[in-house]
Amino acid sequence: MQQDNRPVLVMGGTGFLGRRLVATLLAEGYRVRCLVRDPARAQDLAGEHVEIVKGDMLDPAAVASAVASARAVYFCVHSLSKQANDSTGDFMDVEQTGLRNVIDAAHRHGVRRVLYVTAIGTESDAVGSWARGRSRTEKMLFDSGLDATVLRPGLIVGHGGDGFGMVERGARSSVTVLLASRTQLFRTVSVDDLADALVQLMDDPRSFGQHYDVGSDDVLTIDQMMDIAAGHLGRRHPVKVHLPRRAIAAAAPLIERLAGMPRGAIGGFVGPGSDADMVGDATPIRHLLAKAPMTYREAMTAAMATA
Question: Do the strands 175-178 and 239-242 form a parallel or antiparallel pair, or are they unpaired?
């Protein structure tokens, strides 16, 4: 068990990455606390070493209660909704408000360490509004004076992830319809490697004030990932139908309504900059980590085995 018995707060603990992070923290002997809006979604997380706190990250009082006495805070939240009661706000407003509440609570309660997960391609001059918004949010964290680290993963490979879920479904199909560009490139990263990196860096002062791209050496298109996965399953490569982005954008309101998605959600997938390559440079972080990253094939095989 860890010498420091204070809990580690995971914001987004019921999400795809958050659940893997919670499991990794527990395996390393940490106590964990999760702030969740719906405790029913976290019933499988609750246990002797996991504390579930009900609350919304947009509620400063709830966030302050969760941050109090924490050893560190992980912010693993990727928002798909606009600010409440704001029809003009950007999607990143929700994420930025949540992180702002974490920063304020950390200062109030003397918590120094915050680690934030964004994505490769997060730059202030990026074409896409989400990437620019996350860059502003990263800067807000770095300007806070806290001991902050940002990890920017590529396409996260693991069963249950949105991006890899598209790959996995296509690999099991004869014909698949895709929103992603045929030529867009993604650096891949195993969800377990990403969770391991987050835990390894928690107490590493070399990472304070730094942002790192995270991923393997494999840079692939969605089509290539899908064909490799299909081959692993012993299936023929699926026929891939890539929908024109303009057609998707035109039909977005109907798709969002039928799928129960927040209004404007599809814009982030088909809007300007959404087809930019997500490659980055994953070498600088490697000297801080205990092991080499899994290849795409290794990560894909592990992910498909848990399906």
Answer: parallel
Crossing angle, helix 129-142 and helix 92-109, to 10 degrees?
A: 10
CA distances from 82 to 29, 119, 151, 153, 265 (A): 37, 19, 23, 23, 9
CA separation for the pair 307, 302 (Å, rounded): 9
Kindly state the tokens that stand for 85.
Answer: 């009661």
Separation between Cα atoms, residue 160 and residue 11, nearest integer Å: 18
In terms of Cα–Cα distance, which of 95, 75, 91 is closest to 17? 75
Helix, strand and coil percent figures for the chain, each rounded to 5:
40, 20, 40
CB 222 within 8 A of CB 185: no
C-alpha–C-alpha distance, residues 182 and 301, integer Å: 23
pLDDT in tens, 60-109: 999 999 999 999 999 999 765 444 444 445 567 889 999 999 999 999 99
pLDDT tens-digit readout, 22-68:
999 999 999 999 999 999 999 999 888 999 999 999 999 999 999 99
Question: How long, in residues, is the chain?
Answer: 307
Of 3, 145, 8, residue with least CA distance to 69:
8
Q: For 75, which DSSP code?
A: E
Strands (E), the chain: 8-11, 32-36, 50-54, 72-75, 113-117, 147-153, 155-157, 175-178, 186-190, 210-214, 219-220, 239-242
Nearest to 278 by CA among 153, 138, 116: 153
State whether the Cα torsion 174-178-183-185 is positive or negative.
Answer: negative
Helical pair 222-232 and 296-305, crossing angle rounded to 10 deg: 60
